Amino acid sequence: MVLDKYVDLEIGGKVHKLCYPVKYVFEAERQLADGNILVLMAKAGNGIPPTVQDMFTIVKYAIMGGDTKLTEEEAEELYLEAVSEKSLVEVFQLATDALKKSGVLGKEKKVQAAKA
Q1: pTM of the model
Q2: 51, part of any domain
Q3: Where are the beta strands (DSSP E) in 1-116?
Q4: Would residue 1 count as lying in a domain?
Q5: How many structural domains is the chain composed of?
Q6: Which of 49, 54, 93, 98 fits as disulfide partner to 18, beta carbons 3.0 to 4.6 Å?
Q7: Is residue 2 part of a domain?
Q8: Which domain holds residue 92?
């Protein structure tokens, strides 16, 4: 059985995979304002938008998780390309979809409970 833990993001006519292996969750949390990806997602679910810096961090590590050969600088360049082609909110949503698919947030019922 193959688990689909990827989300596609087209940048410059090329499809890139967004994914969140645990290693990149840890890396992202080190750079988030609250230092906690679950807090960020719960706040977003309750209508409190993340900072642009936090959105950047979430997207960058989703890009790196989808292609672990990329350097941080290459992932940052892809991020800048992506947000110039699409809206920041759209790119962030794709990255959070990859985060949800990773299983880090638990099953959807648990995510909904965390929002309450």
Answers
A1: 0.84
A2: yes
A3: 7-11, 14-18
A4: no
A5: 1
A6: 98
A7: no
A8: 9-115
